[in-house]
Amino acid sequence: MGRRGRIRFATVWLGGCSGCHMSFLDLDERLVELAGKAELVYGPFMDVKEFPQKVDVTLVEGAVANRANLSMAEKVRERSRIVVSLGDCAITGNVTSMRNHLPVADVLATFLNDGEGGVPAMDYDAVPELLPRALPLHQVIPVEGFIPGCPPDPDRIWAAIGCLLRGEPVHLESDMLTFG
Ligand code: SF4
Fold first, then answer.
1. CATH superfamily of 3-99+131-176
2. pLDDT tens digit string along 45-86?
3. For ligand 1, what atom is nearest to the CA of residue 150?
4. 76, 60 in Cβ contact below 8 A?
5. Is the CB of 11 under 6 A from ligand 1?
6. What is the distance in A from the centroid of ligand 1 to the CA of 18?
7. What is the pTM (predicted TM-score) of this model?
8. Does ligand 1 come within 6 angstroms of the Cβ of 93?
9. 3-state helix, strand, coil in the chain (%, to 5)
10. Domain coordinates of the chain in residue numbers?
11. Is the CB of 61 inside a 6 Å radius of any atom of ligand 1?
């Protein structure tokens, strides 16, 4: 538990487009209610460099696509009581895994040009080493729940957070699982 009895809450951005986090921000005024019950201790909205210890609930956006994602996923699992996959990239690989049928060398050659055509070459060493395949989070670490959607609707995120705040397993009613 965090300060004033609030749960310690984190969000993590792995191999995703940040759309799931944008949808989280679309909770709008419900973020104020959430702040009364949860203390945000890590996430892309904060300037905290190291994932902290003793986190109660962590929502993870994105697939595990590179070595940095893999190491972060393992750290999140080690330091979080409950881990929930947020969005289809974390749950199935989705968009991030579309490159899986290509060899990594071909992916890099396509997206990191070699300086031809007047475009500066990128520093390969500055890019985290890609895994051979982008993986759903639960294939790398155990998770306690899933919030589907691309991105998940804010109402669906809020329904799942409600379960987590009540200490219940993530359970979404069927109308929360209908894809629009
Ligand atoms: S699930 Fe959709 S919105 Fe979320 S990171 Fe993947 S592509 Fe982006």
1. NADH:ubiquinone oxidoreductase-like, 20kDa subunit (3.40.50.700)
2. 899 999 999 999 999 999 999 999 999 999 999 999 999 999
3. 2
4. yes
5. no
6. 7
7. 0.90
8. no
9. 40, 20, 35
10. 3-99+131-176
11. yes
